[in-house]
Amino acid sequence: MIRPRKLPIAPVALPAKRKLPLAGDVRAQDGVRPIYAVWEITLACDLACRHCGSRAGKARPDELSTAECLDLVRQMKELGVFEVTLIGGEAYLRDDWVDIIREVRQSGMQCTMTTGGRGLTLERARAAKEAGIQSISISIDGLRESHDMQRGVKGSFDSAMEAFDNLREAKIPVAANTQINKVNLHEIPEVFELLASKKIHGWQFQLTTAMGRAGDETNMLLEPWQVLDVIPMLAALKPKADAAKVRFFPGNNIGYYGPYEAILRAAFPGKHRGSCGAGRSTLGIEADGSIKGCPSLPTESYVGGNVRDAPLKDIWERAAALRFTRDQKVEDLRGFCRTCYYAEECKAGCNWTTHVLLGYIGDNPYCHHRALELKEQGIRETLRKVEDAPGLPFDHGRFEIVREPWAE
């Protein structure tokens, strides 16, 4: 049973961090370019999801104007971005969302969108199609009852199912994404069957992570040892996905390097994930123009600059907060990850997952290989919360990893 919420459901975000320092030099490793950008174009939302890391609901007080958004599209193109995914909040709640789609497409970049689907009407779907959107992914986090509970609005499941139909009617390719947690773990196979029946072309799944509202409601979070249940379950669904022509797309915090990695990531180079791409291949943008190396990373520690103060290229190349993965070494890792056989290649996997859990990076307990190795020693890892979050968008509390004897 999910406990009641304590903090405000939709707090007002702080004004953007401005005039942040940039390094004077551009090093060879800063010549990497993002191929993928995820852009929160508004923090306004029509849902109240219990696992929302950004605590979305109210628009930021200083969101970019239409003119600033269109100029940012130009800068992304010049930086080398290949695909832009629009998110929120809920992207369609911004009046000029279709204009932004059109500008991205006219600039020659791919444009996709992720949505909760509550208000994705046929009219909106047709407008997105006319502007050039190439795919829209709908978030489905369980069957009707558990989805509505997690999304915080009764009827949100039925609205999402209707959104699938509206996108099909508008001839927009449709995908789906799912968070996996204690609430819906037992439903995931049925959820996949439902989504496959909707003729999706791709399914992305990730673990619910301890950011924002999800970090408040700890009963949702899987214990690290439960990846031993999650990973085999997902691997068993892969042949069904292949048969249904659904692209299997594990999120960045699913893995790593266990016996099913090559099955889950058959479409990836080398059939494994590699280290975190934040600030190397990915770019995150907040609605007020704040720039991060990954859209999921917490604002306080990972915003490197604002496009109102400096060109996007300068922030990408010279902001310390975007350089951290370019400089990360095995010696920077901690705990199990520091001595792991895969340390050089993996570098503790998803830095977002680790930072919002522990307050630092480099020691990721949500690892299949790690859980298997510890089980052989008769040990499993659980979480204990030691500090609450302040209650702001993209915030987090702090947990400790507790090791205990394995109990079947």
Write the layout of secondary structure elements.
Elements: E1 36-40, H1 66-79, E2 83-87, H2 97-106, E3 110-115, H3 122-131, E4 135-139, H4 144-151, H5 156-169, E5 174-180, H6 188-197, E6 202-207, H7 212-216, H8 227-243, E7 247-250, H9 261-264, E8 282-285, E9 290-292, H10 299-302, E10 305-306, H11 312-318, H12 320-327, H13 335-339, H14 343-346, H15 351-358, H16 368-376, E11 379-387, E12 398-405
Parallel strand pairs: 1-2, 1-8, 2-3, 3-4, 4-5, 5-6, 6-7
Antiparallel strand pairs: 8-9, 9-10, 11-12
TL;DR?
By secondary structure, the chain is α/β, with parallel strands linked by helices. It is 34% helix and 16% strand. The mean pLDDT is 96.
Verbal overview:
It contains 16 helices and twelve strands. With 408 residues, it is an alpha/beta fold. It has a ten-stranded mixed beta sheet. It has a two-stranded antiparallel sheet with strand order 11-12. The longest helix has 17 residues. It is globular, with a radius of gyration of 20 Å.
| Number of DSSP helical runs | 16
Q: Strands across the major sheet, in which order?
A: 7-6-5-4-3-2-1-8-9-10
**Quaternary organisation:** single chain
Could you give the order of the helices and strands?
A: EHEHEHEHHEHEHHEHEEHEHHHHHHEE
Q: Give the low-pLDDT segments.
A: none
Overall average residue pLDDT:
96
Report, as a whole number of angstroms, the end-to-end distance: 22 Å
Strand residue content: 15-25%
Mind summarizing the main beta sheet? 10 strands, mixed
Instruction: Identify the overall geometry.
Output: globular
Considering DSSP H and I runs of 4 or more, what fraction of the residues is helical? 25-40%
Going by helix content, strand content and strand pairing, the class is alpha/beta
Count of individual beta strands: 12
Rounded Rg: 20 Å
